[in-house]
Fold this protein.
Amino acid sequence: MEIELKLAMDARHAPRLRRHPLLAGVKPQRRRLQSIYFDTPDFALMQRTIAFRMRRVGYHWVQTLKAADDAVGAMSTRPEWEVAVAGSEPDFAVMPAEAMALLKGIDLSRLAPVFSTDIRRTTWQVEAAGCVAELALDLGEIEAGEARHAIAEVEIELDTGSPEGLLVLAGNLLDVLPLRIEPRSKAERGYLLCGALTPAPVAAIRPDIRRDQSATEAWKSVVNAALTQLVANVPGFLEHPEDTEYLHQLRIAVRRLRASVGLARSLGLNDPGWNQALSGIMDGLNPARDWDVFLHETLPALTSVLTTPPLAEATVERVQRAVLVAREVAQTLVASPVFTRLVLDVGASLHTGGGDDLAAGDWAASLLDKRWKKLRKLHAGLRHDDPAARHVARIAAKKLRYTADALSGIYGKAGKRFIRRLADLQDCLGRANDAVVALHLLEGIRQDSVELAFDSGRMAGVLAEWMAHGSTPCAEAWQNLAATEPFWR
């Protein structure tokens, strides 16, 4: 079983790693690792989340099979089998039975090279925080035909001791090195490079929760699901920022983590130490998402109304420029040590104990009932044309939605209708809030020119009109939800 933590870095920072106090007095080992990854023409191994490689280490060849990994933030755990072989061709006769069981039904005679890696690895044996680990600096590249992908990363693999020690070691490195999150294995990046995988944003992941497990363990499942979604969307946002869905899913994951703080309080747990940092990350991502929504949703709707005269090209260009600036700020944040440390800290909190010993089913029913009553109370006297009151109701609906999504696994399909109608209400209140946000954004750029001030005034007028007449859909969405039986009762 391989337990490791992997973080990416810029190759130019390699000398700083070698000078790190953690490595002082530790003799490094240097090797060149040349690996060939095999699969069938229809990528049967990849479809089973299996990686199979032949690796040349000096004058010897090692055959390795890795199965699907179980990840907690930046740390992954996966079954792994390594066998020394005589040559560079696969030899399945020497593989253990449990490894071969994973390959059942695959025609192994069809295996052929699909991509390769050429890595210069420097390793140090380190001891800290109750564990002994191998710290590796990998520099090199992945090759698939003519395509190349550079590799510069730090891997910390557990030899003995507690897995939490890997998080402490990574935190020590982060004190002096700008490391960033890299959840993808070299195999996954190789499959992306050769076109076998298509990158895509990762939507919310439903936690695996049982009614009879402890509420604290259920809470950890909720946090881990949100953390997994957060980490999975990092590479796509950094490499494909023009796909706005990556940022959207990043923010959803952050919001779900923020919602988990309230869940922790309901169990008598202390606020996680990462709560404040999480709020800072959300504040840093919000402008980019707000400008994305304005450019891709609000502005086209305004353009279709404001036709005589049409909005000036300079106005549209100014909005596009604001989008790019906000996106670059968000990318810098996600690639920063602040974000990396947040991921490490959230992962570390999943290894702590304490909290209430309620059964998850009892906890879920009590919490959902409390949040449902609060939302009903807010809506009882809500004026849908009051932006401030509508904002408070939107936050309450959002908290109930995230709680219901996270805990609905206990109830099977019973919560499907309620959650769908709750989502309709949240979306309606969200669209109304988009108009308020758009007005705020326009205030920030209208002074840039006379032309922009003129167009901003026209757009603000339309937005105010939409806000004044947008109460009916929200009222209808609320009526539909109020008529739906709560699934946890």
Remarks:
- The radius of gyration is 26 Å.
- The chain has a mean pLDDT of 90.
- The longest strand covers residues 112-128.
- Residues 30 and 122 are 5 Å apart (CA to CA).
